[in-house]
Amino acid sequence: MSESHVVGVVGSLREESYTRVGIERALAAAEELGATTELLDLQEFDLPVFDADHREAGDAVEFADSVRAADSILLGTPVYHGSYSGVLKNALDYCGFDEFEHKTVGLLAVAGGSFPITALEHLRSVCRALNCWVIPHQAAIPKARNHIADGRITDADIEERVTTLGEEAVQYANIEPDPACFESTENVGADD
């Protein structure tokens, strides 16, 4: 297996982010398989609210360049009102086909409650529109405050799911993508 580069995007701004713990664990699993990794913690980027007239605002170019350099991208989000975080949506708006098309993407959702699935489905739709190959396995950490302590995942089943996500980000990093999906051919972007 050739060396691949995996980036993990932490879509949370919380200081003690459970999402960060999950993404860090998935990246560690990717490293264990020989990948190089990079943590893109949105807390550390200056990404103003996206304005299509100012695509290079703040750290937008640096963020997009890091995503573009990846073979696989792990997107991690807390669940807010049944969907993914606004800060992750904003970061993704600074990216497009140049950063995501034909890339392997893994999804991780972290919830205070017990049902983080809709956020994963929403992210899956976004990735499909960008013509990514989304790993079928997805990881969720429900009731995160009960399963994360001292910066680590304490539930063995959840840790295994998160670890598997990181491993599959490496295993499928260079998968031959399918032909463009209908959503991606209809996604003209936000230029109007």
Automatic annotation (TrEMBL):
Cofactor(s) required, per the database record: [4Fe-4S] cluster
Q: Which PANTHER family match?
A: CHROMATE REDUCTASE (PTHR30543), NAD(P)H-DEPENDENT FMN REDUCTASE LOT6 (PTHR30543:SF21)
A GO molecular function annotation here is: FMN binding
Location of the NADPH-dependent FMN reductase-like domain: 6-144
Give the family, as the similarity comment puts it.
Belongs to the SsuE family. Isf subfamily.
One GO term describing the cellular component: cytosol
Instruction: Tell me which species this is from.
Output: Haloarcula amylolytica JCM 13557
UniProt name for this protein = NADPH-dependent FMN reductase
The regions listed as transmembrane in this protein's record are none
